[in-house]
């Protein structure tokens, strides 16, 4: 536990996006693992202009005021936000688990009927095709709803209740799954690869 909190304090717990050789997102790791991959030559760090650097080139860069860095005996080293793997070309297809939290995140914590963001305590899951009429709990049939809209819709479909959905519910793609995993902390350097915060595909 002590080592984990030390990691968080020094910035080594900071998230890093990992790309395959085709610049497709593979996973999100922490800076400690990122530096290990960089040092062992398994990956290169990308700067804001997407120029690749090996460990020694990256280490010699001067961190700017906007960069997060870690202190070393030889001075600060900038934490890379994006790593490009040298020898990995596949894209994992691990499905995102269907859960209340993940549906809320997919929908950006917004009621899909009225468009409000009333806060977590006022949110519910709504079955687009009502459960009482055979509607199943799937990505394509669950949406985030505020309590008021949930009560108003009741056991009707959106069309019957005259409450149209803001967006059609879909199963998250792999890049959207990564976006959701990264939702607590996002960086502008990630946007070309997994989209802006709150974005969906």
Estimate the global geometry from the Cα principal axes.
Answer: elongated
Query: Total number of β-strand segments?
Result: 9
Q: How many domains, in number, for the residues?
A: 2
Number of helices: 7
Mean of all residue-level pLDDT scores: 84
| Poorly predicted segments | 1-10
The H-and-E topology, N to C, reads as: HEEHEEHEEEHEEHHH
- Give the oligomeric state of the chains in this entry, treating copies of one chain as homo and distinct chains as hetero: single chain
CA radius of gyration is 21 Å
- Relative helix content: 10-25%
What's the story with the biggest beta sheet? 5 strands, mixed
Global structural class: alpha+beta
How do the strands line up in the largest sheet?
A: 2-1-7-3-4
Describe the structure.
With 201 residues, the chain is of the alpha+beta class. The chain has two domains: 2-91 and 175-194, no CATH class; 100-153, Orthogonal Bundle (DNA Binding (I), subunit A), CATH 1.10.30.50. The protein contains seven helices and nine strands, in the order H-E-E-H-E-E-H-E-E-E-H-E-E-H-H-H. It has helices at residues 2-10, 31-39, 55-59, 100-106, 147-153, 174-181, 191-194, and strands at residues 15-19, 25-30, 43-46, 52-53, 69-72, 75-78, 82-85, 123-127, 142-146. The strands form three sheets. The protein has a five-stranded mixed β-sheet, with helices on both faces. It has a two-stranded antiparallel ribbon with strand order 5-6. It is elongated. The model is unreliable at 1-10 (pLDDT under 50).
